[in-house]
Amino acid sequence: MLLALNVNNTQIKIGGYVGSDLKAHWRIATDLDKTDDEYAMIVHALLKYARLEVAQIDAAAISSVVPPLTEVFERLCQRYFGVTPLVVGPGVRTGMRILYENPKEVGADRICNAIAVYQKYGGPAIVADFGTATTFTAVSAEGDFLGGAIAPGIGISVDALVEHTAQLPRVELGKPKAVIGRSTVTAMQAGILYGFVGQVDEIVRRMRAELGGHATTIATGGWAELIVDECRCFDDLDPLLTLEGLRIIHERNRVATDAARTASL
C-alpha cells in the first residue's frame, strides 16, 4: 500500500492507495509543534479505524510546502513504516515540463495538481486550489505546466480583516441569504464569499483567454466546497486531486526505477 501525504500550511491530507484504488483518506490539522512520533500515532489510529494494517504499507510519497514538516514525515515513514518516501521536488521524475522561470519555486502541491488534472481531464486545463493560499495553475494542451496565479486564501483574508479593524468580529464563513447583508455578520459573509467568487471567475476568464479559449477548470482544496457552486467557471469539483497527482508521480518514479534495475542486469 502507498501512503500518500500532502502537507500544507493548514491541513495535511493522507491517503492509502493499493494500486490506483484509494482505500481511505483523511485530513488532519497541520501542527508545527508535533513530532514524528506524535504524527505516527495519529496515522496509526486512522489506519486502524479504516481496518488497514500498518504492515501493508510498502511505499510512501510526500508533497510538502512546509519544509520543517517534510523532515518530520520523512523520519516518520522510515522509523514507523520502514520505507524511504519519495519527496516531490527537484530531481523527481514528473513526466511534465515545468515552464516556470525558476522551476524550483513551484510548490509540490501545484505540480501534483497539474499532473493529476492533465491525466484525468486532458488539456488545456486550470486548477483552482482553495487552501491557505488560493492558487491557480494552468496546464497546456500538450501537458506542460505553464504557471498561474497566487492569491490570499479565504481563511487568511478573514483573519486579516478582523486583525486590522477595531469593530469587526470573527465570523463563521457561510453563504448568506442575500448580498445586501442586514447585519455586520451577514455583510462580512457576503463581502468575503462573493468577493472571492468574482476574483475566481475573473482570473479563470483571463487565463482561458490566454490559453486560447475554453480550458477545463477544476476546483480542489479545503475551501472549495464553500465557493464552487457560486462560481460560473468550474467544470468539476475534485477534492482529492492533489493526492491523485502524488500517486501518479510515485508510480512514474517506481516504473522508471524498475526499468533502470532491469537494464542493469
Report on this model:
By secondary structure, the chain is an alpha/beta fold. It has 2 domains: 2-87, 2-Layer Sandwich (Nucleotidyltransferase, domain 5), CATH 3.30.420; 103-244, Nucleotidyltransferase, domain 5 (2-Layer Sandwich). It has helices spanning 36-49, 67-81, 108-121, 154-163, 184-210, 224-227, 241-264, and strands spanning 2-7, 11-18, 21-29, 59-64, 86-87, 125-130, 133-139, 145-152, 216-220, 236-237. Strands 3-2-1-4-5 form a 5-stranded mixed sheet, with helices on both faces. Strands 8-7-6-9-10 form a 5-stranded mixed sheet, sandwiched between helices. A hairpin with a 2-residue loop joins strand 2 (11-18) and strand 3. Helix 1 (36-49) packs across helix 2 (67-81) and helix 3 packs across helix 7 (241-264). The protein starts with a strand and ends with a helix.
